[in-house]
Write a structure and sequence with these properties.
The protein is an alpha/beta fold. It is built from 33 helices and 25 strands. The strands form six sheets. Strands 1, 4, 7, 8, 11, 12, 13, 14, 18 and 19 form a ten-stranded mixed sheet that branches. A hairpin with a 5-residue loop joins strand 16 (419-420) and strand 17 (426-428). Helix 3 (85-92) packs across helix 19 (476-482) and helix 6 packs across helix 33. 48% of the residues are buried. The model has no long low-confidence stretch (mean pLDDT 96). The chain binds ligand 26W.
Length: 817
């Protein structure tokens, strides 16, 4: 199109927004104002806000494309974005204008916002981390693109029926998603199946092409990622799978119309659903298809942009591009980049490897061996024959390096091989990622140490310089400014508003910790947030929380290593004390637990059911009254956490030491003034370092103690030697919480007595109960608690994802802003 004068920028004031809101309502949606439905109001407002992102988005794209600066790409199978409207308004600084616009129509912003579904394209920590990282990249004006899959169905919606989890599909796109823009001209072709064909090219070089494939289209859908008040708008590009030929002509002509359309469905399955597992891989073919689909589409996208700007000279490619792999899930990218460079752009192996191994960086997010992905070679070969050839070649050259360093150490070669030998040989994706990356990082100091001396020890001996730590963080925009507007205002009036992008400034609060006015306001803000949380609990669980009671909260995926069961043992212990009349000097407590279980994870589902059964006994016992309440919050998700973290007093971070890579919920709670009760695990250690021992309730074995106790772990004697513990076990084993469902909890309860319990729950029971007692006493001392709460917020600056991303950039990406 011919270049013409640019449009004037859109106004950010009340009148300008009102104008666009009405235009979209009337002209985009064809709605009659007096009859507008809530959904239409939301869409019209979202579009008016989106218009304001759009012009900044274009400008950012043009600037990034023309600057020739280095760029990074965050490859992730998960992005747990949550809602976009509030976030966009905050970043554009138009909340006030929007509120007053709506006010004129008698509308509440909160009601309008509730029309938006969460973009729940992730399981938990890893997916939400990706979302926080994009926010920080945009806020730091770093040229980073997120690449992921546009799942038609996100994380399932959890319902609780008779105390048990029931999964319902999350068709989040049903009502059209206003934040995405489809970009069909950037569609990529993805190959599956077929075979490798060897040939000699015109220059006489031997080459390979991948033929007889079934092709699937990857159609990009872009979402704007606004930075905070800086006019930067980055991109999250999500791929949707589509059939390459809408109709299989042969089938169609033969009158087999349904069969031809069925083919289309099969291709589209690839982006149909997010796998709801967050720890154990179950080797499903579709999952490998998803991983390859993401890797291939994203790499082709980056290469196509490179060629457009630079032609097929790749000499400077590695200087200008960097791929960050979010866990092993997208790590097939290592082999795929090799394939594209060699087969499509005719680079030699050595040149292609030089580029690949200096552009890939891998982040590990878990220490659980069952979460390390492995794929059967046979499956790989069937789906991706050309890619598997390349993986074998990478492995052969890699093992040569191993044997050069440790001649004759065949045991080590066997251990380190990317291909695990056995009756069903497997591709070890983590090893492929390490071999192909110039950087490998863990997500908290302890986690990285444990990777170095444990899981990846051999690799660290080979390449010590690759390994580094990047302690996780969360975005203070969503997790403080947006979710806790009252605290935001109090902070602004006490220390100014620079903390939103320089979170270390929260430490300036420390100087005001004894200011009576601040302390009183601080408590009022917490009460107000507790009232909102209590409303949510009432509405979703039917349980009344007294806002004077201590709000004791554990929300995260349900997993044995996270030990929701330990939390529950404590609740039963408190219940038992009340029943026995041992409730002198009592601190009333409201315990909230929430989280999803992987649909195939039997134990996790049993734990949910047990929590609900205990809750119904506790909450219906008049003798217990307000002293103790227990609620299980159904369908825990990003939007629920926004209410929960602001209204929490006590944050439960009780995993078996050495098992939680980092945790990020712990950081959201801390920022909002909750105090942690936790083990020395993941980022808890760093949280405690920042806030000081006296402002953290510590208990439990250390990671080293866990491992040294393991061989002679004897839960039976631990229980026997502890009267309180014995009584708790006796209550559970008597069937008190499952009177009409005999035996249903046998497996869960038995796990506590099992000497092979990997999570060693019994070992930490007594120190946990003692730490809980300390927390209860501290809560009674309002002045002490207020100090602890203020200091937790004040010392949370380190846990901004802005700090984390600045470190990724300094140590790994090295982008200019
Ligand atoms: C089924 C394959 C699979 C395996 C592992 C899917 C997802 C995973 C993830 C590693 C699970 C996850 O979310 N890990 C969490 O990552 C967070 C961000 O780094 C950490 O804070 C958590 O400690 C870690 O459990």
């Amino acid at each position: 199109m011919k270049k013409v004068q640019a449009l004037p920028p859109l106004g950010m004031d009340n009148a300008a927004i009102d104008h666009d809101f009405r235009r979209h309502l009337g002209h985009t949606l064809g709605s009659v104002e007096s009859e507008a439905q809530s959904r239409e109001i939301y869409e019209a407002l979202a579009l008016a806000v989106r218009d304001r992102l759009m012009e900044r988005w274009k400008a950012t794209r043009v600037q990034q494309e023309t600057s020739g600066n280095k760029r990074a790409y965050y490859l992730s199978l998960e992005f747990l974005m949550g809602r976009a409207l509030g976030n966009a308004m905050l970043n554009l600084d138009i909340e006030k204008s929007v509120k007053s616009t709506l006010y004129e129509y008698g509308l509440e912003l909160e009601d309008v916002e509730n029309e938006e579904a969460d973009a729940g394209l992730g399981n938990g920590g890893l997916g939400r981390l990706a979302a926080c990282f994009l926010d920080s990249c945009a806020t730091l004006s770093l040229p980073v693109v997120g690449y992921g899959i546009r799942y038609e169905y996100g994380m399932f919606r959890q319902e609780i029926q008779d105390g048990a989890q029931v999964e319902e599909p999350d068709h989040w796109l049903r009502n059209s998603y206003v934040w995405e823009v489809q970009r069909p001209h950037d569609t990529r072709h993805i190959k599956f199946g077929g075979r490798s064909e060897f040939y000699v090219d015109a220059q006489g070089a031997s080459r390979v092409r991948w033929v007889d494939t079934e092709n699937v289209l990857a159609v990009p859908h872009d979402t704007a990622i606004p930075g905070y008040e800086n006019d930067t708008v980055n991109t999250l590009r999500l791929w949707k799978a589509a059939a390459s030929d809408a109709f299989e002509l042969g089938e169609f002509n033969a009158g087999r119309y349904p069969e031809s359309v069925a083919n289309k469905n099969e291709a589209e399955h690839i982006s149909m659903v997010l796998y709801p597992n967050d720890s154990s891989e179950n080797g499903k073919e579709l999952r490998l298809r998803q991983q390859y689909f993401l890797a291939s589409a994203s790499l082709q996208d980056v290469l196509a942009q490179w060629v457009k700007a630079n032609g097929t000279n790749f000499e400077k490619f590695a200087e200008k591009n960097c791929f960050q792999l979010n866990d092993t899930h997208p790590s097939v990218a290592v082999a795929e980049l090799m394939r594209l460079l060699m087969d499509d752009y005719e680079l030699s192996w050595n040149n292609a490897w030089e580029i690949t191994s200096s552009t890939m960086a891998y982040t590990n997010h878990t220490l659980l061996p069952e979460a390390l992905e492995r794929w059967p070679v046979s499956l790989f070969r069937k789906l991706l024959p050309r890619v598997v050839d390349i993986i074998f070649e990478i492995n052969a050259r890699f093992l040569q390096q191993v044997s050069n360093k440790w001649p004759g150490d065949t045991e080590r070669q066997r251990r380190m091989s990317i291909i695990e030998e056995g009756p069903e040989p497997q591709v070890r994706m983590a090893y492929l990622a390490i071999a192909g990356s110039f950087s490998v990082n863990g997500v908290a100091a302890l986690h990285t140490e444990l990777l170095i001396d444990g899981l990846f020890r051999d690799f660290c001996e080979l390449w010590p310089d690759k390994f580094n730590n990047k302690t996780n963080g969360v975005t203070p925009r969503r997790w403080l400014a947006a979710c806790n507007p009252e605290l935001r205002e109090l902070l602004d009036s006490t220390i100014g508003d620079q903390w939103i992008t320089k979170l270390d400034q929260l430490d300036n609060l420390s100087a005001h910790v004894n200011d009576e006015k601040l302390r009183e306001d601080w408590r009022q803000v917490k009460f107000s947030n507790k009232r909102k949380l209590a409303q949510l609990v009432k509405q979703d669980c039917g349980v009344e929380f007294d806002i004077e009671s201590m709000f004791d909260v554990q929300v995260k995926r349900i997993h044995e290593y996270k030990r929701q069961l330990l939390n529950l043992l404590h609740v039963v212990h408190l219940y038992n004390r009340i029943k026995k009349g041992h409730s002198e000097n009592w601190t009333p407590r409201s315990v909230l637990i929430g989280g999803k279980a992987a649909p195939g994870y039997y134990m996790a589902k049993q734990i949910i059911k047990l929590i609900n059964n205990v809750a119904s006994v506790v909450n219906n016992d008049p003798e217990v009254g307000n002293k103790l309440r227990l609620a299980f919050l159904p369908n825990y998700r990003v939007t629920a956490m926004e209410v929960i973290c602001a209204g929490t007093d006590l944050s439960e971070q009780v995993s078996t030491a050495g098992k939680e890579a980092s945790g990020t919920g712990n950081m959201k709670f801390m920022m909002n003034g909750a105090i942690t009760i936790g083990t020395l695990d993941g980022a808890n250690i760093e949280i405690r370092e920042e806030v000081g021992d006296e402002n953290f309730f510590l208990f439990g074995l250390t990671a080293a103690e866990v491992e040294s106790m393991r061989p002679h772990y004897d839960p039976q004697s631990i229980i026997e030697a502890d009267d309180g513990f014995s009584e708790v076990m006796a209550l559970l084993e008597s069937g008190h919480f499952n009177q009409f469902e005999p035996g249903i909890f046998d497996a869960v309860i038995a796990s506590i007595r099992n000497p092979n319990d990997p999570w060693m729950t019994a070992a930490d029971f007594r120190t946990y109960v003692d730490a809980q007692e300390q927390a209860a006493l501290a809560y009674q001392d309002v002045e002490r608690w207020t100090t602890m709460s203020i200091l937790n917020t004040a010392k949370s600056g380190k846990f901004s994802s802005d700090r984390t991303i600045a470190e990724y950039n300094n140590d790994i990406w090295q982008l200019n802003t």
